[in-house]
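Morning F.,

Quick status update on the modeling queue. The single chain you submitted on Monday has been processed. Sequence for confirmation:
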Amino acid sequence: MSTAAMPVPRILYRPEDAAAALSLGRSTIYELMAAGQLHFVKCGRARRIHHNELERFAATLTDHAS
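Structure tokens below.
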């Protein structure tokens, strides 16, 4: 029997982790946050992005291949 713990689902992402999740650059995430296109919360000096916000933002992206 394995005693490995189940991974805890992530709720808040650091900008660097959000960039990886969205396959974007870190500076792009900061630009989106500054422009108000990607909402975040501040915990002291730290900025965190809620996982629902990442999903909302990704859903707003459109395919320009047409």
